[in-house]
């Protein structure tokens, strides 16, 4: 039985049709990736599935008692709410009590003799035990920790965009919904966290519907791809790699059908041109058929995004950086930084958020000045900067005016092209040129900003998270453009596939002004990094004999004592459920759906049990030492 069914739904905004009479169903275990060009209606379709918007026609049916978790691209938040309050707000009474219990326990540790707080902790503990909600706390702590969320009492208004996205992610994961809907979940999230999220979602119970530009993520998470194209849905079983192969075959078949159609149109046109005397009233049906074919031909003319690099003259000296130092708000981002950009550089920049990656691009673009050191730009260098914020987009400006302000004419391989022609090459039809920018989707705005950036005809191109909010088709074409680009390219990105396809060496920003060079693409770097981490762990892991005996043991806090007591019950329950699932698997026989469901639950139970064991051992060691 499906968890959700979208049946023959349609949606349009004024004259712009997003989709017509499309249907989609998701059952437990389905993990579907939705792709399509920006502005095609992907996010709208997710909102309809989440119940946040209504279709113009058709209907949406949900399984009884279905719980939906929805992560928007830019989740709305109360700036005055704390992380803990926000994360637990939608997870039911147990989560609310856990939030209160956590805060009360912190207060009790600060003042163990406060009778009022002690009584509150005891009462909350009893209620949590009655609701059997301690497992929720363990799960919540695991998710929060894995997403790098440690400041639970911080107000949401003080967090960066990337931090807020991770907090919102934690909230929907902790809810454990029957249907999880994610809109660009990997935006602003570092590769290590993305890798953990891949594993978490691959073992998810229930159904998953997501939009992402991250092709590696699609490859490792989804069981099917659904493409929204020409107002219709096309389904492809399997991951993204299989989708690419099958889509090529579908395009080949469509090209053949279009060629047959064009030949038929030519024959009918030739017949029509014979003149009225060659036709009788009895042949009116053929006249109507010919006109219908011609109209169909016009409707089937489909736009394709066209990027082309012509480049401009570039001298021997590009950009040189010597001894650059930069601090912002007392935080060192660059310390004695050295780099000399060469003509064919394809340089990727990676590292955690807030360590200076975008700052370096702003220095090169002249938006910031170094505190000390020298940055020299060659006389022939023309820099174009595609930043994260699309900084010069004016929502109250018309598309044609915005592009014309950048360049009235642009040189392409086919000669000079006007602003209007370039808009059409970037999939903005003529009837949209006089629309205001605020009417565009987020992805369409990024595509428009990309057009204006490239129309400046640079020979040094700076790209800051270029794949965020772009569809996978546009990203693939941008990769081809970069490969052919006559000049140097510097890319800051979390998109692993994009880096692998565009750069040949990396700068790794490690924090505190430290920058390391790596001669290779992202995948090569990860292989080396993981080997280094494994070696480091083996060398630094202390043995039992090496553990210093004279170290003063730390006592368990009141909260930890309660956690240790509840963990013993949790472990017993998980072990019992593990045994039940193993027995059920042995009896599943040829029922594949039942086997898949049981196996998925067993993996989750085993994972939670392993985490519980580790935490129990940690607390037990502390308890025995105190």
Automatic annotation (TrEMBL):
Region (Disordered): 537-559
Composition skew (Basic and acidic residues), residue ranges: 544-559
Domain of life: Bacteria
Sequence intervals crossing the membrane: none
Keyword field: ATP-binding, Nucleotide-binding, Repeat
Protein name (Swiss-Prot/TrEMBL): ABC transporter related
KW ATP-binding (keyword) present: yes
InterPro entries: AAA+_ATPase, ABC_tran_C, ABC_tran_Xtn, ABC_transporter-like_ATP-bd, ABC_transporter-like_CS, ABCF_ATPase, P-loop_NTPase, Val-tRNA_synth_C_sf
Database matches in CDD domains: ABCF_EF-3 (cd03221)
Lineage: Bacteria, Bacillati, Chloroflexota, Chloroflexia, Herpetosiphonales
Span of domain ABC transporter: 4-255, 319-536
GO molecular function terms attached to this record: ATP binding; ATP hydrolysis activity; DNA binding
Record flagged with keyword Nucleotide-binding: yes
Source organism per UniProt: Herpetosiphon aurantiacus (strain ATCC 23779 / DSM 785 / 114-95)
């Amino acid at each position: 039985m499906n968890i959700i069914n979208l049946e023959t739904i349609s949606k349009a905004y004024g004259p712009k049709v997003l989709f017509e009479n499309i249907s989609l169903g998701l059952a437990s275990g389905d993990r579907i990736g939705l792709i399509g060009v920006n502005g095609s209606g992907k996010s709208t379709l997710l909102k309809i599935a989440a119940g946040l918007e209504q279709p113009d026609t058709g209907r949406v049916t949900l399984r009884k008692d279905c719980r939906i978790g929805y992560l928007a691209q830019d989740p709305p938040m109360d700036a005055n709410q704390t992380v803990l309050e926000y994360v637990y707000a939608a997870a039911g009474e147990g989560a609310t009590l856990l939030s209160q219990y956590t805060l009360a326990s912190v207060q009790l540790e600060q003042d163990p003799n406060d009778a009022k707080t002690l009584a509150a902790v005891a009462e909350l503990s009893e209620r949590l035990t009655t609701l059997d909600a301690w497992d929720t706390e363990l799960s919540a702590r695991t998710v929060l920790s894995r997403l790098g969320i440690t400041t639970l009492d911080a107000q949401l208004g003080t967090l960066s965009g990337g931090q807020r996205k991770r907090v919102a992610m934690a909230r929907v994961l902790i809810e454990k919904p029957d249907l999880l809907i994610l809109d660009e979940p990997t935006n602003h999230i570092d590769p290590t966290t993305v890798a953990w999220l891949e594993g978490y979602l691959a073992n998810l119970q229930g159904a998953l519907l997501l939009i992402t530009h991250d092709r590696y993520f699609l490859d490792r998470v989804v069981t099917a791809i659904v493409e929204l194209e020409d107002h219709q849905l096309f389904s492809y079983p399997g991951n993204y790699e299989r989708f690419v192969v099958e889509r090529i075959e579908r395009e080949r078949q469509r090209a053949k059908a279009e060629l047959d159609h064009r030949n038929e149109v030519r024959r009918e046109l030739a017949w029509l041109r014979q003149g009225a005397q060659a036709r009788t009233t009895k042949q009116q049906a053929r006249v109507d058929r010919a006109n219908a074919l011609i109209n169909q031909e016009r409707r089937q003319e489909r736009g394709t995004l066209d990027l082309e690099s012509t480049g401009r003259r570039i001298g021997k000296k590009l950009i040189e950086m010597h001894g650059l130092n930069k601090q912002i708000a007392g935080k060192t981002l660059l310390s004695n930084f050295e780099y000399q950009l060469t003509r064919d550089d394809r340089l990727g920049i990676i590292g955690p958020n807030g360590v200076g990656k975008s700052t370096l691009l702003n220095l090169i673009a002249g938006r910031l000045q170094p505190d000390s050191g020298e940055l020299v730009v060659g006389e022939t260098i023309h820099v174009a900067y595609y930043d994260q914020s699309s900084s010069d987009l004016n929502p109250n400006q018309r598309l044609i005016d915005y592009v014309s302000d950048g360049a009235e004419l642009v040189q392409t391989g086919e000669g000079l092209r006007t602003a209007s022609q370039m808009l059409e090459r970037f999939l903005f039809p003529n009837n949209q040129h006089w629309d205001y920018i605020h009417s565009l989707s987020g992805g369409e705005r990024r595509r428009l900003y990309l057009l204006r950036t490239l129309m400046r005809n640079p020979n040094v191109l700076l790209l800051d998270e270029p794949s965020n909010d772009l569809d996978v088709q546009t990203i693939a074409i941008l990769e081809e453009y970069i490969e052919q680009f006559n000049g140097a390219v510097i890319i800051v990105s979390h998109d692993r596939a994009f880096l692998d396809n565009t750069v040949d060496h990396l700068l790794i920003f490690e924090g505190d002004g430290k920058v390391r060079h790596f001669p290779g693409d992202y995948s090569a770097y990860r292989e080396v990094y993981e080997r280094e981490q494994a070696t480091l762990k083996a060398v630094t892991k202390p043995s039992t004999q090496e553990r210093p005996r004279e170290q003063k043991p730390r006592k368990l806090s009141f909260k930890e004592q309660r956690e240790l007591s509840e963990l013993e019950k949790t472990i017993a329950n998980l072990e019992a459920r593990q045994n039940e699932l193993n027995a059920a698997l042995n009896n599943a026989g040829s029922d594949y759906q039942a086997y898949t469901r049981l196996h998925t639950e067993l993996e989750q139970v085993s994972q939670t049990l392993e985490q519980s064991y580790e935490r129990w051992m940690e607390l037990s060691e502390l308890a025995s030492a105190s």
